[in-house]
Write a structure and sequence with these properties.
- It is built from 10 helices and 6 strands; from the N terminus they run ααααααααααββββββ.
- It is α+β, with helices and mostly antiparallel strands.
- The chain has helices at 12-34, 43-108, 114-120, 124-128, 131-135, 139-195, 199-217, 230-240, 259-269, 278-281, and strands at 286-288, 299-302, 308-314, 317-320, 329-332, 340-345.
- It has a 6-stranded antiparallel β-sheet with strand order 1-6-2-3-4-5.
- Strand 4 (317-320) and strand 5 (329-332) form a beta hairpin.
Length: 346
């Protein structure tokens, strides 16, 4: 006969624990439900964050520009080396053909010189190392073989150099891709913040930016721009024709620019080639550390890492491509957002 055992009831301690846990869960759920939603950032807070992201994007842009410039230089150097190797190989083949002609002539005249037999079947380097072999050659043959040896060494060196530059080029392309992604990520984050604004807030920000661009695009009391002379005057005059052109990262004109793209383009119009990036541009010419010593057309650099550059416009203002979302314009040096480091007279 089956036994019927009474189910064991939970102990008082266990009931207490379960009850407490349930109560805590209910309390947490209630708190979560009643918690106030995260406060939406104000228009000014969004603008401040966006401006910071744009500054970081500009920093990455200058690194991107540097990698791009290096890539272009490496490509030119590799191309030149490859052309030189091709020409050198042609010269080498011609020299070898000459030796072959000598061998043919000797064979027809009664027998092939043992020294030429050795050359035609082995490396000239090891061949020339044998002094006894040299004694068996005519002065013309010795000279030809020495040219072959020198040409082979030259080609080997150029091929090794080209191989090294190709590796450097591959690394530079990887760096270029990383910096491009970094710039795009910063700009995308900034756009996401802007998209969080209401239509009215977006309209207000746009109106503020348009007012800033309009007021900055018309030069007001810039002082004495006759201080600009020669190439600086020509560069500044060229930059003035680009007022209102949009900022686009990596752009060098003529319809859009980033900061160093504008300055390098402007000086190119004056017949002066300067480096592509702001950091490289800071290493040329004569440095001017006092704003009172600046002349119109001087390059002016901002921020500790020198990631922003413009052209001095007189009376404490510069002509520059500020950042994404703006246009080429005049602006007071006091509103750039970073400290003035120094100027450079090209």
């Amino acid at each position: 006969m089956a036994s019927h055992r009474r189910a064991k009831q939970p102990g008082r301690a266990r009931v207490t624990v379960l009850t407490s846990a349930a109560a805590a869960a209910v309390a947490l759920s209630s708190q979560a439900a009643n918690a106030a939603p995260a406060e939406k950032p104000s228009k000014d807070e969004v603008k401040s964050r966006v401006d910071k992201l744009y500054e970081q994007a500009e920093q990455a842009t200058e690194k991107f520009n540097g990698a791009k410039e290096k890539q272009e230089k490496l490509q030119k150097q590799i191309s030149a080396l490859q052309d030189s190797v091709a020409r050198g190989q042609d010269d080498l083949n011609e020299l070898r053909d000459g030796i072959g002609s000598m061998a043919t002539a000797q064979y027809r005249s009664g027998g092939l010189d043992p020294s030429l037999q050795l050359f035609l079947s082995s490396d000239p380097d090891s061949y020339l190392d044998k002094a006894s072999t040299l004694d068996q050659l005519s002065s013309q043959q010795v000279e030809t073989l020495k040219k072959i040896q020198a040409k082979q060494r030259e080609l080997a060196q150029q091929r090794a150099e080209a191989t090294g530059k190709l590796k450097d080029l591959a690394a530079t392309r990887t760096e270029l891709g990383k910096k491009k992604k970094e710039v795009q990520a910063k700009l995308a984050e900034a756009q996401k913040l802007l998209n969080s604004l209401t239509a009215a807030e977006k309209a207000a920000l746009t109106a503020e930016q348009e007012r800033a661009s309009r007021s900055s695009s018309t030069r007001v009391d810039l002082g004495n721009d006759t201080s600009a002379t020669g190439r600086a005057a020509a560069a500044f005059a060229a930059a003035k024709t680009r007022l209102g052109s949009p900022y686009v990262y990596g752009a060098t004109g003529p319809s859009s620019f980033d900061c160093s793209g504008l300055t390098s383009w402007a000086y190119a119009q004056a017949g002066v080639s300067i480096p592509r990036t702001s950091e490289s541009q800071s290493t040329i010419g004569t440095k001017i550390y006092s704003t009172s010593g600046l002349q119109v057309g001087d390059l002016v650099f901002f921020f500790n890492d020198l990631h922003h550059v413009g052209l001095y416009a007189g009376n404490g203002q510069i002509l520059h491509a500020p950042r994404t979302g703006t246009v080429v314009r005049y602006e007071s040096m006091s509103t750039i957002g970073g400290p003035f480091m120094f100027g450079v007279r090209v």
